[in-house]
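Hey,
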Amino acid sequence: MPSESVMKGRLVIAIALTALIGCKEDTSKEDNKDLLTTDLVTNPRSAEGIDTVAFNALPTMDFKDTVHNFGTMREGESSTYEFEFTNNGKSPLIISS
């Protein structure tokens, strides 16, 4: 029969393997189908400063109304409201989720 220290070592190894297997990142295309590609995302701010041309071309969201009063609601009741907005920027506005 193995000694107590050998059994503890095996237990530590088993826990470590379980943790590694449980933390495996799933990179299947099925799970990532709703993600944006990086070529759609730009950031004109960097360590070197701001690219003012790119910054001025960014999309902007201008809302028609920014507040809506739902009135008195009861617990469990649900309601919806659609906020209207316009992209007044010089590039497409991408809303992914």
